[in-house]
Predict the 3D structure of the following.
Amino acid sequence: MWQYAVVILLVFLVLCYKRYNFLKLFEKIDGPKAYPIVGNALLFKNPSKNIAIFNEFPAKYGKTAKIFTGMRLSLLTTDVKLLEVVMNSPNLINKSDDYILIFNRWLGDGLLISSGDKWRAHRKILTPAFHYKILEDFIEVFESRGKFLVDNLLKASREDCVNVHTIFSLYTLDVICDTAMGTSVNAQCNPDHKYMEAIKTMLDIAVARIMNPIYRNEWAYKFTNIYKTEMKALETITSFSLGIIEKRRKFLESRHSVDENECDEFGKRRKMTFMDILLKSTINGKPLTNEEIRQEVDTFLFEGHDTTSAAISFTCYNLSKNPEVQKLAYEEICHVLPTDRAVTIEDLQNLKYLEMVIKESLRLYPSVAFHARVVDKEFDYNGTKIPKDIMIAINQYTLHRDPVEFPDPEKFDPLRFTAEKQSKRHPLAYIPFSAGHRNCIGQKFAMLELKSAIAKVIKNFELLPVPGYSPQLISKVTLTSDNGICVKLKPRSA
């Protein structure tokens, strides 16, 4: 028994020595007081307060602060000069251990958390999935699914307070399943879809694991009840995805064709889905396995519906609070979008003011409030040596509120995103889709979907604020609100 005690003591002493070295190495960088073993865990024990706490960091500690997760040190930054290094360096493409901790069993080596040669190979395969020609095909999906969205919003408009985030989440799940998997799940007609519930469970568990030191330890975590809950949710997610992948694989094999211009039985050109590209791709002459495809598909199902639904919801909330902006957006939509034919990709691209509205909403409420990189190779920054394996976290929520780059930062002003004003800002002062080597591969897809959905909402409803309501922000991997994202919907007269 005493042998185990000696081992534990030695491990503890090694960690203490590392902590001491970190404190010496980063003595020029300020940060909140950290305690042995727990680090800054006590400061961040309430996830609903973390956004506000981190937002105060630049004023208290400077643009780059040091924080301890247990005994491990990380840097949290809003410094655009440091971001130039982080975003543009080929030695800083690896995501943090937190991503692996919370996503490994779910997303495996999918594009979100993979690194090195595997990430580069998969990124190369997936880039054509967002070619203009393929995106053009998806507009029809946005439109058809948007009709169900309007119907659901109309039913909800009888209430004085509507949590639109719930409704938009179902819409974006329908869209991403149709476009990425070529399969309809009809989530808007089935709000209790098991896949949807499993995703919510996984996100709740992700927050718990990041914040709780016991849950962060893989050995201890496996003895907890939430581990059992995760396994059950994961079984739902993987069986759903693998079933569709196998079905799609057999369908493609039965066609004996790789012609992307092939037509269906109605004479329409078949849409090339994200999954089709994966199923037809090879790496070093070998096709991807079902499990590799599942990891990529699940990555896109998660990222393509959760982040987008948050962005639509917060944009609608901002429009409800700014009627003069909503009026200008409504007038543009009525002027640009056709009434005598189907909406095209060019129509959506011509919604210039609405695009500025969306960008300003993503400035105030970025879908991902924090993201991080791990240093692969030591480098110097401002006289401080940044060693290998240190995590550098980007506080995107606060970065977008820098009063130097964005005067009167809490004001909602879409005109910040005119071409002239954008050219005067540092290019990394605004990064809602990240930047550099690991920027969001689906950002063009996302912007088209956002425009399509929000245009439909504004065209059919006047968005009004709910008296006394304000969102209680919380970062559950994506930025959301503990009390929903709520507006009042007033149907426009025909």
Observations:
- The radius of gyration is 23 Å.
- The CA atoms of residues 38 and 70 lie 4 Å apart.
- The chain is about 55% helix and 10% strand.
